[in-house]
Design a protein that fits this description.
This is Ribosomal RNA small subunit methyltransferase H. The chain is of the alpha/beta class. Helices cover 44% and strands 14% of the residues. The protein has helices at 10-17, 34-43, 56-69, 84-88, 108-112, 137-143, 146-157, 162-175, 181-191, 194-199, 206-217, 219-233, 247-260, 293-298; strands at 24-27, 48-53, 74-78, 97-103, 234-244, 281-283, 306-312.
Length: 314
């Protein structure tokens, strides 16, 4: 069964990338295929779209789309975008890609998959991994120390009640292993004051689930690793577009573009430049692009999306 997913900021991303007939473009996060299908149309039959995803759900879904709708200029590649350069190396050389897009959000299908544990609104096995590599979600929840859990919830989820929640998890798992998303939600809910839950703008488990997912998939490390590779792959004038959904991701993208837009990155106390660094990017979004009210009404998850775009210099 083919699932549908509404991509966030689709028109803004497509416009920013300035794709032309015959271009080679990389969609580093295939997901539901929304960006990939748009890119496929924009680059035409003579162009190519290389779409990467580690999740078999996304890959199998797009294979079904290709069977029914074509998109013959799209090649799907299994892997984590943190390995982007090696993944696309058989298809394209250094400095030949016209555009690269990264949408760092989850697809609706991943959230709705009852065999996974991404969502706190449904009860499923506690599995937030995109692929079979790395640590398991159950290992994070059931084996990490209280101190490690606090660090994860604070750093990756920016959760004010990190200590209280971590302690509750440790106490609960002594009695029995935490195996489902529903059980984890129960533990989180029981650990929090009623007033705190009532004040929460989002579901009280949102930040913790986000943090555990990031830890499971090493998402921030992967983002930090892919950005230099993207720069290496882009041709002069090629563009990079990244859509992030929380401040930690946006900060990494913002700082990378800022650093690569400077001719010197020496510390301020150094009187004469000794780093030899030359600007390789032009920042095209001084402030991130956000969704308009119409899109947010149609797709509430767009509310937290931020788009940053940069162009590679000669």
């Amino acid at each position: 069964m083919i699932y549908q997913h509404k991509p966030v900021l689709l028109s803004e991303v497509a416009t920013a990338l300035n794709l032309k007939n015959g271009d080679v473009v990389i969609d580093g996060t295939l997901g539901g295929g929304g960006y990939t299908m748009e890119f496929s149309s924009l680059v035409g039959k003579t162009g190519r779209v290389l779409s990467i995803d580690a999740d078999e759900l996304a890959l199998n879904n797009f294979r079904q789309i290709q069977k029914t709708k074509g998109f013959d200029n799209v090649k799907i590649i299994k892997g984590n975008f943190r390995d982007m350069f090696d993944l696309v190396k058989p298809d394209v050389g250094t400095g030949l890609v016209a555009a690269i897009a990264l949408d760092l959000g989850l697809s609706s299908a991943q959230l709705d998959d009852l065999n996974r544990g991404f969502a706190f609104s449904t009860d499923g096995p506690l599995d937030m991994s995109f692929d079979s590599n790395g640590i398991k979600t159950r290992q994070v929840v059931n084996k990490f120390s209280e101190a490690e859990l606090i660090k994860i919830f604070r750093n990756y989820g920016e959760e004010p009640m990190a200590s209280r929640i971590a302690k509750a998890i440790v106490v609960a798992r002594r009695k029995s292993s935490i195996e489902s998303s529903g059980r984890l939600v129960e533990i989180i809910g029981e650990s929090l004051p009623a007033a705190y839950k009532a004040r929460s703008r989002n579901h009280f488990a949102t930040r913790v689930f986000q943090a555990i997912r990031i830890a499971t998939n090493h998402e921030l490390q992967a983002l930090a690793e892919v950005l230099p590779q993207a720069l290496r792959l882009l041709k002069p004038g090629g563009r990079l577009a990244v859509v992030s959904f929380h401040s930690l991701e946006d900060r990494i993208v913002k700082n990378f573009i800022k650093q690569e837009s400077k001719d010197c990155i020496c510390p301020p106390m150094v009187p004469v430049c000794v780093c030899g660094h030359l600007a390789r990017l032009k920042n095209l979004t001084k402030k991130p692009v956000i969704a308009n009210e119409d899109e947010i009404k149609l797709n509430p998850r767009a509310r937290s999306a931020k788009l940053r775009v940069a162009e590679k210099l000669n």
